[in-house]
Fold these 2 entries.
Entry 1:
Amino acid sequence: MADFYTTFSANSQYRSHCRIVQSSQSSSDNSSVLTGSMWAEKISGSGYLTYNSGNTGSINGDIYVNANGWAPYDFTSYYSSKIMGSGTGTVAHSSNGTKIASGSYAANDSAGGNFGSANGSWSLGLTTIVDKPDTPTSVSASYVDDENVSVSWSRPSVTNDAPNTSQVRKQVNGGSWSELSPVSVTSSLVIAASANTKRILQVRESNSAGTSSWSSSSNAVYTTPAAPTGLSAVKDASLDINLAFTPNVAFTEHQHVVEHGTVAGGVTTWDGAELATLTSGTSTYKHVAPDAGNMHVYRVFARNLDAGGRTSAKVTSNTVQLLVAPNKPTLPTLAAFVDKAKDFSPTWVHNPVDTTAQTAYEFGYSTNGGAAWSSTGKVVSSASTKTFVASTYAADVALTVRVRTWGQATTGGSDGTGASPWSDQATVTFKTRPVVTITGPTDLSTYAKSALTVNLGFSQSEAATFVNATIKLYDGASTLVESLVSTTRAATLMDTAVDNGSSYTVTVTVRDSNGLVSDEVVSSFSVAYTLPVAAVVTATYLPDSGIGQLDITIADPGAGQAAATLVTITRTIAGVVETVIAEYPKSASLTILDMTPTINGTNDYNVTTISADGATADTLVSMVTAEPFWAFLSAGSGFSTIISFKANLQFASSPTRSSVLVEASGRSRPIALFGESGTLEVSGSVQLLADMGSSPQEVEAFILTSRIVCYRDPSGRRMFGALTGAVDSPSSHASGFQFKVSEAS
């Protein structure tokens, strides 16, 4: 309400009084109803005045009042008033609910002329119209973590219904709604949560005019489900495995996932795929016909069905061993013949299906090819061998054996008790071991040679034949110096020369055609013999042919010496020993030619003289060569055919090694694998000049007739291999000779 006053222009004892009242407001159409009144008031002086009709007044603007024809009225006292007229009108507010109403007013005394006129303006701030908010829309909930979820919504465009608070309520796991405390107006909110819950949210908003309705429900938002408990795995009579557990998820929108693994050596290997998924409300699962050869273990976890698909922790079961009868055991291949005088102890291998170890066995045996069987009966034991003591059976008795085993299974199998089938049968025949004797050198004898020859005697009572002998030579009684296997009983020559004045021991075992080995026999002996005369040697290099010449003189024996009967010569080049000549008959003087020495290096010769009783004496001599120009090719018997060349000698080597490239996973480049051996090729060219080395004709003939050649050049290279070559114009004064030698493997 507002009052406005203006004195009359002709008589200031009176004034015009305009009153504007907001009598009501409507939020439905955002408007107010105004009442306007107008009257005259006496504000000073004495006496009274009578007004006649015909006086007029008006209120204009947001409300209009027209006051015509005042009735005569006597002001009988000061500050009395007389209403001139009143009226009402509806005023529309602005879109935000506010309104300042305004206008003008006027009063005129047209009848008596006592007042004159009074004019003024009016303004009234109306009470703002506030409407309660509209209901929020598009409510959406989302997972933040197991302690928080968020909710967001949309609010309609607001004017005079703007909210000042927002409020959320929640429904947890399908229970009753609970309201959260209001907060300052917002369009999103993070609210507290907890694991293993399903939350649905609604929103409403409030202002001074009231509260909206609750919104439609949000989507359900799920936190991490609770893991199951009490997971157990139990096998049944059908050898299926039954799983049971207690679900702990507080909402139905989930499944339980079953995974399967196997355990071996304490290590669990999980399958690559899920074994099963179980719908909500299911807490058991049967694993049908799992492999009895494995130990089984399971794990179960809960998984939500929403897009997030959050999973609980995984719970692992106990391990389960399925017990079934084993497969038939394996009897390893038995010898065809065994020594009747020794214990016979066949073994076997237990072959479980269910991985359990052997708990018992039954061993069967027959001496008539399996027509009738004897048995140990079931023996509770983990042992995998059965012993028949020595001499249980006579020579030539054939014994057939078989075995079956038990694991931990007590049902099924070959007889309903968990036994395996019988193994395959195996047969052995008992025989007498052979007997060996050492007929030379005999025990406690004196041996008179450095070359040791061993002679044997052999017998076997069932007419088995001699196969081989293992002969061992010991220096003294215990230091092994040589061991060899001989296929002859007579005159086996040992590689080791025995030393004059030393003592030795020979041990021998023999193997017969039954595969049986004799007892070991021993012969200890001493050695006494006379050493031969040593050679006197001179080594000379022959540069025209690249030959080493050894001039050897062997004197007649003197006191305490034996005559030399044979000569053996070896040559060592860079640590490699080769035989030049072996056991050549001795004469007082000898000239031996070494056809393939190195022509640029050191040749170390060992000339050995040998007596009739095999005693030896060594003479060492060296021949150092430094050939600067010539190269030689040797071929033929004893490499006795030689060609030589020197003019403008040029040569090159080409070593190679076999290799292959192999692609390897995870590598962008292949791997090179090299062979253990390689090849070497030496090639060269030379000018064959008249009267200087071999002629073109000789070289050509050499190429045509040579097979394996020895190549030697001034670099000290010395190699054996195959020759290819070519000679240019063999009839001219100077001919070219190109050659290549490929090293023989």
Entry 2:
Amino acid sequence: MGYQQEENDYFRLVTSKRDVIANNLNSINVAIGDVIGPNNPIDTWSTLGYFGRFSYNFKEKYLFEFNGRYDGSSKFEDGDRFGFFPSAAIGYNAHLEDFWEPAFGNAFTQFKVRLSYGQLGNQNVDSYLYLSNIPINTRLAWIVDGIRPNHAGIPGIVSPEITWETSTTKNIGFDMAFLNNRLTSTIDIYNRETENMFGPSGALPAVLGTAPPQTNSASLKTTGWELTLGWRDGIGDFNYRVNMLLSDNKSVITEYHNPNNVISNWYVGKEIGEIWGFEAEELFQSTQDVESYLSNVDLSYFGTGWKPGNVKYLDLNGDGVVNVGDNTVENPGDRRIIGNTEPRYRISINGGLSWKGIDFDVLFQGVGKKDYMPSDYATLFWGWNSRGHSNVTEAVLDYWSEDNPGAYLPLPMESGGRNGFDKDRATSTRYIQDASYIRLKNLSVGYSIPAHIMASIPAIKGLKLYASGENLMTFTQLWENFDPELADVRGSGRIGDSRAYPLARTISFGVKVQF
């Protein structure tokens, strides 16, 4: 049987089992090299998976479970399409042992230890990267014989051996309860190693002349922990509860082909989200200040035409020039790691109480550490950007002038570029933002009418009045034009980052009737 026939039979098996996730099953023959036509787009794909599970429970004390997955994806070439991803977990309920209660009493009412190991595969990558495709476009940018014809481009470099990205997670956890289950706690500590990550093939010579293809080019290690605490108790008709969730993690690149450790790319040891920037705490305050500083320090890397109100960048390595050096970890010039965009120490606190028909619930959430550096054209921060779409608010009016020498923002300039405002908007310690926050996400109060009052209205079995509020208060040091939940560098350069529909503060009242 030929290769093509084998593949057709294989995908008929997939279809008959209805285990396919695809945009168009009729188009799956693209994976076997057939000609692509208008009804056979290359962006369709299909998956096939088998899985099994074995569980064992002995007297609720000893628990064991094994899972196995065997998954295949048409996005990868034959021979690299399938992967086996096993996982296993064991649990031990020590508090069910005969020795537990005599030794600990009700101090520990639950003590469970959990260990787990598991792998998962990821195929979230463009389809058929192993095939050489000729891009076909319409309306050429040049007029030929009076028309703008269709045209074909040059095929990109293929990724012949691209396959599943694999994440391996190891976890140890403890489930505990104390004082007759009034106090509960869960602790998890985990390590996740992601291998064969999808990414560019690594640093390649500039003479290549095209973008490097995506390959399984990197590995990543994530370590983290989660802690939950809960307390529940009551006195007579008064009952209350408080729960807290706190978690943290960080991810570090452990493998990537970047022999020169170029900062602008991934490199071994790079922590995901790190921000490299310059030291700058002051603005030039006078022409004499500018001339005196520039006589000793060269700032030409940033631009020209320095004036009072421009940012004063510091020469950290003392060589008389402020720049990026070789843009490598070993020689970063005058840059250093000044922050990280990844959220750390996520926290959530919720609680409630009830007393004689009155109930009260509250939810706080936040992030303990996160940094944000506005991009050059983040108009919500800088204001004017010379390209339109600017946002002139009260916050951005705190710019430097002779009448406002202590301003936060630099001298406003009409245009960008090296002689304009670009030189003041380099990533620096002066303008990096603390995006940590705590927010009162929800608060609700209700009152249920007592049953003896409602007894006079037989048709109604229950009546409750309530009021609730969403996003009522936020505590943060972030620039006032930004929402800390949305602060991020994204969007086009003309519009700027962190532009999104703001979270609404909502207050509502209602009546709940039960018939």
